[in-house]
Structures
1.
Amino acid sequence: MERRSFLTAAAGVFSLPSLSAAIQNAASAYRRPKLKITDVRTAMVRAHGLQVHVRVYTDQGLIGQGEATDSAAGVVPLIAGFKRMLMGRDPLNVEAIFESIRTGGIFAGAQGGQYVTALTGLEIALWDLAGKALGLPVYQLLGGKVRDRVRMYCDSQHHHPDDPQAKAKLQEIEKMGFTAVKFDLDEGADPNRWDRVNWTASNAEIDRMVKEVAFVRGVLGKRTDVAADMHGRYDMTTGKRVARELEPFKLLWLEEPVPAENVDALREVRASTVTPICVGENLFLRHGFREVLEKRAADILMPDIQKCGGLLEARKIADMAHTYYVPVAPHCVVSPIGTMASCHVCAAIPNFLVLEWHWIPRLELWREFVKEGEIIDKGFVTVTDRPGLGVEMNEAAARKAQVPGTGWFEA
Ligand code: MG
């Protein structure tokens, strides 16, 4: 007899105190899965930039998968170097593993960059593994979900008024169901530039940027949000002028008008405008975001969850931001595996705004990359209830983008 039906029957026979005793006697202690890490291997894919896929193997056959990106060129040898700190360990103690590798690398660059990105790919694989071992979706391990669907925005480069395709392409993005788009304002080849090295924009260059935003805003419906990215390439005078001139368009945000590394400069730009300023795709760990929040230097944070430290670290960054009433709109340029990993975080944090999708030029690869097929439905991802991340790589499709000359989960 199943425990539940036994207890129901027992409730009919015994009084409540007896029922309580029956539960005490019938319940056996929860047996936590015991696993040991036996190997960690990687594979490199080039789709939107470079992605490193990470697999953690265990003595009971369960495998966890993760994905790292952007500052990923040195991730493969870094993860090989982490192996000695992983073999034989219990993969379910994710924080303990993360903290030991992070603090173990203090003199090896563990404050940011490729070291943290390597640790990120591993951390995500450990969460996938933990979810599979416990039979729970990852969002459940991050505190449970506050929303079922994650709003996506489409990063596209159809913003040139002279491009005869641009209007139709933007309308197609809206028809796909997206409620927000983003495009790049920085243009190194702009003929209006006087100097290829100095990043003070000329009047004509700023006019070009304003025209592009006006064009995109004019094509899209009023309800669709528009964000624009300056990639941290400009100086303060330009950042301030562009943010001010774009105020009438009510952008969802202006991204990194100046680099995020000088927080005081960033704060000065933010204080000069009502255009919301968004930063953070090149910041690492909680520590990278602390000063930005303390100095009120940004309106929106955009940690890259496949780069900044992983799923729990992103949750911690979002929670810090939440105490300042700052929303989070994560940067995301990875495959459906990393995107679904990000969605587990976005589903779990109250102050989530919108998540990036950057694979419209690789639509065919995107749709076949995981066995589950397309994960975006009319501009939203419904976070899966399957254990772990809930998506599995379609090897044949993923290998179409394998970096030539590299191994495929061989070491
Ligand atoms: Mg950006």
Note: Residues 114 and 322 are 27 Å apart (CA to CA).
2.
Amino acid sequence: MISPKTAKLLSVGGFFKVKLLKTVDSTNDFLKALPQNEAREGLVVVADEQTRGKGRLSRKFYSPKGGLYFSVLLRPNSQEVLSKLTVLAGVCVCDAVRKVCGDDASIKWVNDVLIGDKKCSGILVETTENLKGFAIVGIGVNIGDDNIDDSLKDIACGVTDRGKNTRFELLAEILENLKARYADFNATSVVEEYKSRCSTLGRRVKVLRNDGQEYFAIAKDVGADCRLKIEKSDGSTEFLDSGEIKILIS
Ligand code: BTN
């Protein structure tokens, strides 16, 4: 049940139109399947549960009832904005979790939101051939620890459940944050905000390349292009692109 306050917030300045679904395979795939003539910037699809929630690198995103799963359709006006949507969304989710749930959230490069070293939220930005000019920003947030699958309990957690409205209060806050940063887009400040919340920086990480190479390094910086600068044990530096690697905080 959405409270009147939340319902008002969900309209966030008239920019977002929110559609609520009970069960869907994936909210990202739901938006991807829209015909171009039904695509509108600001359309938001929220599902109570997903049967085939997706993460980056073809991973599954476990999406049982109780969590927050939604996708937002945007029409970025430049390649620059498109390329920053993942980090922009990370900042918006991190801040919303801190404010609504009171958790000490941070960002793990590139698209995970953590509490401590456990993941509470993931972000998947996609484009699709049949929706030209649009981008889909998919966000999943685990709420409370009760719905975390036993097999994931060592690496995943939920944000603090503040009662029956947590899900929609979080959604409203994330959308409000998103609207503010997207409408008044500034690449430099988005990257700076991202870096100040990024708990990967300064940490020892294990880099797992798609080609099978694995090595340890120290995460040093996030560049203006959002690549992660690492320093390897021989002192050499490298910039990592999110599409090519997984990193584990060691
Ligand atoms: C990741 O952890 O790599 C990204 C997870 C993104 C999950 C969200 S839930 C809503 C939207 N629909 C999906 O199928 N995925 C995203």
Note: The first strand starts at residue 17 and ends at 24.
3.
Amino acid sequence: MRVVILENAQRVGRWAAEYIGQLVRQKPTVVLGLATGGTPVLCYQRLIAMHREEGLSFRRVRTFNLDEYVGLPADDSNSYRSFMRQQLFDHIDIPASSTHVPDGLATDVTEHCRHYEQQIQDVGGIDLQLLGIGSDGHIAFNEPGSSLASRTRLKALAARTLQDNARFFGSLDRVPRLAITMGVGTILEARQCLLLATGENKASAVRDAIEGPLTSQITASALQLHPQATLVLDEAAAARLEQADYYREAEALQAGC
Ligand code: GLP
């Protein structure tokens, strides 16, 4: 795993956007896996600025989001589809038909999940999967105990996740209890994974994911199995890493190689 430690959340967002921007320039038809939550917002803002100021085009890019709440229509202000429109899609030149987010109102959830996986296969797989991390160590909505081989499916949210996400809904009892989420196995099939983490409330999860054992209790630890996983952290999220100095040194030594 490549671990990049930067000064603050602003730098993390900028680093991720430059990385993604470079990929889009190299391969205009790139397939991006996208994430929601507060963490990637700064990255999305920078991508929007790159589109406006540097002509970065997303016209041929295809995207697949990690997850969606069950029971929320796409146009609900709290749906992840709305989040992506507000934070990114409505501000760049990507056709709506090239963006994919699971349907929180799907009547046949099993079939919908199978179809979502099929759509990913049909475009040749995900080139880069952007990820955040839950304070319980989850990626997407793969809560503790999720199989490390899991595929897109229905998942019940853990108490800590409901609590963490209540801030978006105004109160805990408004947070949907179920979500459709890509599985850990689905995520590991992306050619590259890029996980962003900022803030001290992520420091334990980040340490467990990078330096703890591979375990379904911390689904982000599955990235230890991925040959091309990069974790970009701010100082606060990196604060509990035992090997932080080594990661910094390794980055400095490998710069430009
Ligand atoms: C939700 C999302 C995850 C995200 C996590 C952390 O659980 N399903 O994909 O990584 O929130 O969100 P935040 O970046 O707001 O801390």
Note: The two ends are 17 Å apart (CA to CA).
4.
Amino acid sequence: MKINRHFDEIQDSYLFAEVENRVAAYKKKYPEKSVIKLGIGDVTLPLPPAVVDAGVRAVRELGQSDTFRGYGPYRGYSFLTRAIAEYYARRGIALSEDEVFVSDGAKSDIGNILDLFDSDCTVLVPDPVYPVYVDTNLMQGRKIVYADATEANGFLPLPDESRRVDLIYICSPNNPTGAVYDRAGLKAWVDYALDCGAVILFDAAYEFFVGDARLPRSVYEIEGAERCAVEFCSLSKTAGFTGTRCGYTIVPHALGNLNKMWLRRQSTKFNGVSYAVQRMAEAVFGEEGMAQCAQNVAVYKQNAALISDTLTDMHIYHTGGINAPYIWLKCGMDSWEFFDRLLAKANVVGTPGAGFGRNGEGFFRLTAFNDCQSTAEAMRRFRRFFSA
Ligand code: MLT
């Protein structure tokens, strides 16, 4: 048997699986402890009522012979691709419906899109970054070069014109640092990609957290991006779909063959998102759904502000937490050691910066997705932990 040897190049377990294993081991040893999780970015608020109602109606339709549906269209139902195109249109971005592809979430598509690119491509990945970008490329044997995101550049690296690459990952608002590119920053990347003939893989999973109208929520707000960028988005954080699963990917026609190739890839390997979930996703983009999602996101943003204010008060350097659900703090020591100490002494879980790349060492990520009471309690424990 010849196995894919590239798996030897990745860590034995996925970052968040490793965090989960350590927490499970701790809880097994100390079952009486109440552990607060600010680790993986998993939402805690229930689905918006408009979304639930749409799901119930859709399931009822599936139970009637005249409204039953089997396989859906490969791109997604047109009621949803249209709703997504209209969502972009409301933000001044013109998309045709067949540039929108419905998926079960951004993570899958971010990995799957690599089917369209040669294994010889050189890939540029910011460091630190969401580990999926690195792991999926390593699994397929691609060469990765890194763009250093550091305190010095506010965790928003700009292109190095002296090197040529084929694929560029950008996540803004960023996971894990919460930093957000302004228009000038994104334009620098778009210009660079156009100059190199590279494709930007733009992860917009956290766009709904951007409250500052001056900051771009989509790469297509930048002129020329439709000729060099694919955009991935997810309803996980916008609408609480981490368990429900639905996202979408924009592959503009201006990218040449990629739109056709992506349809070919999806129709071969993916049978789509269930009808009921697509109806629920459609409801997210309706007036009521949008307002209810905004209410939930406002709660998470309140948590983020509380975390950020607590850290400011304690004079701990951090980024994020304003237009993003993540807070990236300087822990000033080996980040896995900090993780273990924080878990043992404060019973609070976060994510070690080292899990996001070399430049993440010495940093630690907290999420704003827990409920208000637990977040407030975690911050009280944080204060005690640091003053001990
Ligand atoms: C995270 O915590 O970074 C994300 O929730 C993980 C994911 O979206 O897969």
Note: The pocket of D-malate is lined by residues 40-41, 107, 130, 175 (CB under 6 Å).
